[in-house]
What does this fold into?
Amino acid sequence: MVGPLHYLFLGAVLFALGGVGVVLRRNALIVLMSIELMLNAVNLTFLTFSRFPLVKSAPTQAGFLSGHTAVFFVIAVAAAEAAVGLAIVIAVFRSRASVNVDEFDTLKF
Amino acid sequence: MEVSWLYLIPLLPLAGAAVNGLLGRWLPKAWLYAVALLVVLLSFCIGLFAWWQVAHIEGETAQLRQLVFTWFSVGSLRVDLGLTFDRLSGTLVLVVTGVGFLIHLYSVGYMDEDPGYWRYFAYLNLFVSMMLLLVLSDNLVAMFVGWEGVGLCSYLLVGFWYDDDAKAYAGRKAFIVNRIGDFGFLIGIFVLYLYTGQVSFQTLKVAPLSLGVASAAAALLFAGATGKSAQLPLYVWLPDAMAGPTPVSALIHAATMVTAGVYMVARLSFLYVQAPGVMAVVAVIGILTALVGALIGTSQMDIKRVLAYSTVSQLGYMFVGVGVGAFAAGTAHLITHAFFKACLFLGSGAVIHGLHGEQDMARMGGLRRLGLKHTAATFFIATVAITGVLPISGFFSKDEILAQALNTRAFDFLTLLPDPSSPRLAFLGPAIYAIGTVTALITSFYVWRCYLLTFEGEYRGPPEVHPHEAPWVMTLPLWVLAALSVVGALIVLPSHHLPFTWEHFTEGVFARPRGGPPMERLPELVAFGIALVVAWAGLLTAWSLYAPGRALEGDERIARAMPRLRRALASALYVDALYDRIVVKPLWATARTLWRAADVMIIDGLLVNGPAQVVAAVGSVLRRFQNGDVQRYAAVTAVGVLILVYVFLVRG
Amino acid sequence: MAETVLFWVFFAGVVVAGAQVILRRNPVHAAMSLVACFFFLAGVYLLLSAHLIAILQVMVYAGAVMVLFVFVILLLNLREEELSRERVTVWKGIGALAVAASVGLIVVFALRTAYSGPVRDLAVEQLPTGFGTVKAVGRALYLFSVLPFEVTSLLLTVAIVGAVVVAKGKI
It folds into this structure.
């Protein structure tokens, strides 16, 4: 039987993959994709808890689908963030001819 | 008798100093002179008024007193600013303000062209105020305030021309050597307070003191006096203090400040008679200083230095006076010395002024005939007074001291060592008399030498310098002081039947030394005869060596006869070099080492720069965290998250 | 039974595709792997009875966002030599380990005690009213979170304008 723990475990793995990708990869586009992975892991977690609420909380009429509404908004925001982030990558690429995050290091001492 | 206006006497000059000091730069010259002269004159007049009253009150308690205010009161110690105007302090007030006024007047002429004249008069007024405080105060602490105050003014005035390094150094030397003595003075006050709980003269007079405590306190206070009054071994500042303007030398280093030590011993006569051993020490140091001062004075070429060593020598006489218990004689000589020494100094100032700054006697000579008539005449009169060739003031006061020393019984019961079977010190009095008489001969010799080399003979200076007489503001004080030198004899006449002598006047003020009244070892007239002979012997010796026509040959003849002695005396017995080697240089070395070790290395290096460098080092390490690499920021954030997760999940 | 099999299939798909995203050197390959990952995730969402979300995942995420990604990748036209070799510095390694470790700690310590006792399954309970259906989620959105909904539209407008301005170069 597949219970909530399985889904949550999947979410954890996905989040870890995304986090490692953000820290390790040097290509800015890959980093943005890793961020999308992390957001999806969060969505999965939301949905899991929406279906399998922790027993203590008794969801109200409005509450028991609040996880779904949250995921809805996360998807919208992720889309907006991806758009702006890619626009930034394009702008930076235009001036530096590189998408290597290691080379974007002028915001420093 | 309580009065309410005594405080004006020291306050008026202080106010004058404040006005001239703060506003003097912008005041018109005439106003500044008016303020400075007026405050001293007013103090003199008030002092005269008070003196007249005190002179008419009968008995020992002839005093005017005023408790101005309570300065501080801590625990059982209460220190007031109290003033006591009695026959001793009152007369000194008149001397200080009177001679002070004359010197202020003289300074108007002397310092007229100096750009810093306003500072000068402010300091001079301040000095008068502090000296008056010293003389009038009724307790040791207030006296010490005045004591330090005059020391400060001495520093300010000796180093008046501070642009010149040597002069500034002289000012520092005066202050520092004084300070050494002042340290002893302070410890003396502490000792007295520790054992009696009192600092006021009236209460100390009746406080019971053991021999040890009295001796310790007396000795320590006298240590302060050796500094302030330029006795052995702390006299070295006085000759150097001649770097200041000549009126300063006249006022501070002849008439008033240096006499503060004598005044202090006289004021505390009740303490000193309880410590006869210390009195013996005082007298011995006094006579030795007198001798050494006179000897060095014979070989100086700077006219002011001759007078400086003369002051040292005469102060020695005063201490002999108070040391053998003749407090009246000692203080009488203080007063007459103020007159003729001030006259001598002001006269030398007129000479220097007339020669546009020349102070070396080798380039003087024949000034009497070249126009300095008033100066020469007054200088002559003062010289007669100090050497005693004629029976005017100096003769009587100095030789009264010597007579008292000869006849004193204050040391009869003292023994050389604490062991009672060691020889008694009764011979000390006559011994002092003998040395004092020899010193009087030397004194007569060198002062006449000074007069002859300066005013008689041929002019030896450069031809372009035309000597001229001083203006009336300078010669008037000279004549007044010369007249006082003559007239002052009246108060020191030895006749005990005359009611207006100083000794009668101050009856009851001083305590009597133990041992009993003086015995007459030599008849009075014989002693005076010896003194007169000695004075004339000195004059004739000086005449034979330095007469007009021979002048500087005299020095050369002495130099040929006693070359080593002459050289030693000319360099003041190398005392300055000695002090320099054993005191000054080690202190400098210690200070430098401490500065390097403590200040530079520890405080600057470790405590101040240390933390700064630590911060800089830490900063240079930490700044690598902000290198602009976003992924590194994310990594660091992840580490932080890990720590937080660990703390909250694993450790609860 | 079928649920279990499907779950593990989807599980494997998500993990493998996600790993490929962070491991591929060529960004186009990574993008494609991400698309695959999104599809498998949509399947997982369906298993969770999140029907609307699953559709939205495919339509918006895989369909729009990833298309945008691919467009940009192709626009940048990165040549082979610009795709450099990875260099794992000390800090990056530490950071990666920290991420993994924190997730691991959460899994071990938080999840273990998360569902003690009976598990409520809302999909089963709420079956009559429709759990996760378009109608139910729509009702929840429009009745109980209208403001965030409208604000999100504003957010999207701003994002569009911002993206255009930033990417334009000369304003």
